[in-house]
What does this fold into?
Amino acid sequence: MTSRPAIELDRVAFSYGKTAALRDVSLVLQPGELAYLVGPSGAGKTTLLKLAHGQLRPASGSVVVCGVRVHRARRRAIRTLRRRVSVVFEDYRLVSRLTALENVVYALRIADLSLPPGAARRCAAAALASVGLGGRLGAYPRELSGGQRQRVALARALASRPRALLADEPVANLDRGVATRVLGLLEHVADEGTAVLIATVHSGLARRPGRILHLREGTIDDQSPDALPWLSIVS
Amino acid sequence: MAVHRVLTRAGWTGAGIAALVIGGGVRNWIRNVRTATPAIGSMSLLLLLTGTLALAWLSVSEVLHTAASEASVVHLYLRSGASDEDVDALIHRLQADPRVAAVTYVSSAEALRDARRRPGLAQLIDDSATNPFPASLDVEAVTLADVGRIASSVAAQPVLDPAGPTSYDAGAYQSMKRFVQVAGAIAAAVVLGIAAVAAVIAGNAMRAAVLARQDEVAIMRLLGASGWLVWAPFLVEGWITGEVAGALGAGTLLALFAAARNASTQLFTALLPGVDWATCAFCAAGLVVLGGLLGAAASVAGLWGVRE
It folds into this structure.
């Protein structure tokens, strides 16, 4: 018996006005699978992630994520989906009035209202420690560098142990060492059963474990890492 | 065991909701207290006016009630030095009148004693060397309509004080009623006007608070927060604004009442007859509750246009 895919896009199309962003895109990601969605800026990577997160609806085709038919889901179902699927946004999307720890706790409590405050804080602190921010729990986003904010966003996404994790440029602002550590963390999360989809233009992600999906001009034209000669190696 | 687990989970869920909704609302309110200041000012002014009008209404109602019960009684003021025979003759004549229900003789000393019970008069009486109150006959009419006829039938009697023979004042009661109706309508219009202004100001303050936190609202939605979880803290924030305005209005009302009580003693006049501290405290408590409701309502109105 095969498990149900965590993320499944079937012949999806989406346009911004008359400009086509995605054309006939199909993609299946199983639980525990990690995939890099790579392509140049404007290729449609963020649009694809937004479709998978229920922020956009496809013009045609179907999007099913964690059992939720996103393309026809009502608001309640979208909310349920967002509690199961974590996102690392390209612009971090941290609440400026909350500290790093509070940002993660906040997301945890939204995801599970029955979570005791102490448990939420411990879980959040552990997630922040795992991304190397154990010493900056009380720092506000304005007191953190871009890379640190990105890691807070990552910790927030990891803390709730989601069924699927969508990450938009999660290592764009990180130095080589931290990027490697973060990618290792995402691989570990995938090993524990979470489907991880990472969108990136970063030229340093090839030859790491996981599938490479090449998105160009709104279509996935190849899924072979060998077809991406412009990617350099980070290990 | 399973029941215990369910109850524990329900308890933590309640605590979690309270922390997010009430805690979030309180924190936001403290953070945005400057934005809420105009709303607090206008709402407290409205509530103070409402409380003052409520006290005035209670007082006027009390006066009207007393006036209505006294309206069927006319006082016939006896001339100083009137003989007992003349007074008895007048009493017999009145008792024979079918329009008269009862006649009571009130001596000058009794009139003085009654006057001492009225607020502010005691000190004035003490300052007077003589008793200024004449003896009188209190005549109770069978019907209110007979009061005027009885008064005019005896007004020319020599036994009565020629300067002011009776207490009858045609139309005084009706005039008072009409005044209360007109004043009430004007007061209601003023309160409604200020309420509208206060609601607009408070609503705009809330709208500004939402717009200033659009990013945060968007993040909450992206994290999967339910609609009520997003908006309830704003409702709590509006409620707190209303409560603070209510507390300010209530405090000012109590202070004004204390000042009015003090002024009553100084002016020998009851400024708010029939209203005591308990009534004022009740009105003040009502303002606090009303403030909360008004703040919450203003929140809903303010959020209406920006929810999506």
